[in-house]
Amino acid sequence: MYDHMFRNALIVDGSGVEPYRANVAVFGDRIAFIGKEGITRAKNVIDASDAVLAPGFIDMHTHTDLQVLRDRDMKAKVHQGILTDVSGNCGIGVFPNTGEALLAAVEDVLGTYDNWSWKSYEDYRTLLMSEGIGINEAFLVSHTALRYAALGRDAGREADDNEISRMCAILDELLSSGLRGFSSGLYYSPCLFASEKELIALLGVVKKHDKLFAVHHRCEGNDVIASLGEVLSLAQKTGVRLEISHLKAIGKANQEKVPEMLRMIESARERGVDVKADQYPYAYGSTSLFSLLPPHILGLSRFEQRLALSLESEREELKNEIMHPSNWDSVYEMVGPDDIRILYLESHSELNGMTLTEVGKERKADVLDALFDILSEETGLAVMTDVTQSDESLRMIMRHPLVSFGTDALYSSPMPHPRSFHSTVEYISRYVVKEKVLTLPEAIRKMTGENADKLALKDRGYIKEGCKADLVLFKPEELEEDGNDNKGFEAIMIAGKPSLMNGKWFYPRAGEVL
Prior knowledge:
Helix content is 35%, strand content 22%. By secondary structure, it is of the alpha/beta class.
């Protein structure tokens, strides 16, 4: 007897083919049968005749390395049908854990956790599985953690040959342990200080293991063409599989560059470069407020940053750098203070929700002076949102067959970006049902099978006999946000165990570290 049976479901199987109707039976943690024959012997029969059955959604780009410890049930993800996360993105990760310098470097993106008791990846994995987790987690080796492990606290500089060799040895060991790839954030400190020699050496290790290189490339704004060319060149030189993280062009003046960006990716594919990309379904993003500062300031400790920001002579030079950047993304210059909003400040909560323009007026100061004051006084978290791109560019990128789905979810502050709770609903309800940017089979492929293939997950991402029973039953036309929850999901199952069934939530913690 089967454990569960979805009767007469409209199946969108993750491959991109047209939907079809069939019964799907689950036994244990696997899909055991798909067919139109009548099945009567199942312990639990779900009438799925008015809903869509899809594989569990796979988030190709997220930052849940610490969130999965803070909320082991992972409700924010499960409640939107995401059953597999890819963490360690943008070069930001938590192992190997080398202590306070690493904690400080990742805090604005990953948030805080009281007990960083692990040292190695194996320690971290053991801690995760000690109490179970609500979704599957796939991890990338983070460039930030590698640099602190090899360079110590002085990671804001180029590495020497011995330090590069040390990073390569650690990366080799971690990829041998089953991690899915390596990530860098060339926009962020300390990754931005990596030389081409360092990057090519590390990517040689990634290629050796046939794993993925996911990268937040150096500039997504004024220099986006050159920056994209840099990572495409690195992939061509090393033969590594390349994943361009959250593909976009930042700033109103740069939206016209999107067609050329897509042509560059297509041309690289024609030359034999295995390159793809991911995208979150919002025209505005979220990251650390400190990222508005020039790279040489980001490379300093928080104490040194506060000192630099407090000196009048330094401030005038910083203003000039921010307004006339050279070889780095000045989001402030590209986006403007009207479209940068403070999401969360730990030390100045009265400013939460204000644009930088409004903060300047509130403090009766020049906007950049007000920003410098805030950052020099902030000892905790500082997170912002910014309008990065046009809706037209977002749709153009979304349609491209080489671009898949991710959320770029952050849970570092008590007031996260909506993408942390509602990305799948936004993706389907807006861009499939309402605007018809994608067909439902295309969207589900980008959310499931495509991402499983990138990660070489052989038994997930598809509705096939023998695959893991990670399944989502939903009504596309009824998907909508509901606070931090979502409406329109009828049933959610991970490894054959219900997370949502008959209107009731369960938290079986049946996830795995993949």
